[in-house]
Amino acid sequence: MKRIRGLGLVLLTATIAIGSATAQAQQVRDVIFASGPQGGGWYASAAAVSQILTENFSGLRVTVNEGGAVSNVRTLNAGMDANVGYSWTSFLSDGINGRGDFEGSPQETVSPIMTMQRNYISIAVPARSDIHSLEDLSDKRILSGNRGGGAERAFEKLMGLIDVTYDDIRDAGGSLVFTGYGDGPSLMRDGHIDAVVIPGPAPHALILEVESQIPVRLLEVDRTILEQFVEQNEGFGIDAVPAGTYRGQDDDVTVLASYTVLAVHDGLPDEFVYDMTKALFENRQKVADVVADFDFLTEETVFHGINRDNVHPGAMRYFEELGL
């Protein structure tokens, strides 16, 4: 009899625990998703993520906002204007550890979920321009994305490695355009900018749009500079946009690469994060159908560029169940 009573108590405790966990997941009614600028891959993929979440959580409202890789870390850490969103593995690591853009201000209430995408950081210029190196950009008009975005911060650091600051560019007669990537095709077509910095897949829809209007080419960045950048900035890599990706591109073009990480504010309940991680990972092909480069996410790459010790416990429980 004692055993039966004990078992009944265990079953009752388990039932209460399951009910409590379910209630935790159900009490989240709003997800505010920090993505990237309109016209970019993050914004487009966030719509697919939104659809997956609303299909798997009854009554959940998902709002997608623009953002940037650096600013999103701060926004998610605060948890007021977003509770789920994207960053780059490099900037999230810097934020958690209080380095780089977050020097002296560690972001202690934001956690990674999984790595979702490889980004080629491409610099597109008119094919007939005299721009053939980073140095040639020192007096040009450049669209580098929204201020605080990943591409913008990476570009500023790249230029810093050749001792060129934003002020130097302006003093030499150039300019910086901090706006969404979607403005790039029309601005380049009309001669208002000389270069556009775009992170994302290869081929990228916006670069394809530009080349449908004027001949363009990708800027080859000196590998020595890229190696120095990667050595100084955790979470970046060196990759190549394959020959033939764009019209007239006969050779591979060496570029900087980064990795998109999905992150959350730590205030979200563990059970909700578990369920969300499960829904997104099992339906990841739906995101890749919208932005092809999100097919980077596999069981082998889920923690690429991420310190496992920092992964949200709800997400880690799901991945441990998969044996990852």
UniProtKB/TrEMBL annotation:
Pfam families: NMT1_3. InterPro entries: TRAP_TAXI. Coiled coil: none annotated. Residues 1-25 form the signal peptide. Keywords: Receptor, Signal. PANTHER family: SLL1037 PROTEIN (PTHR42941:SF1). This is TRAP transporter TAXI family solute receptor.
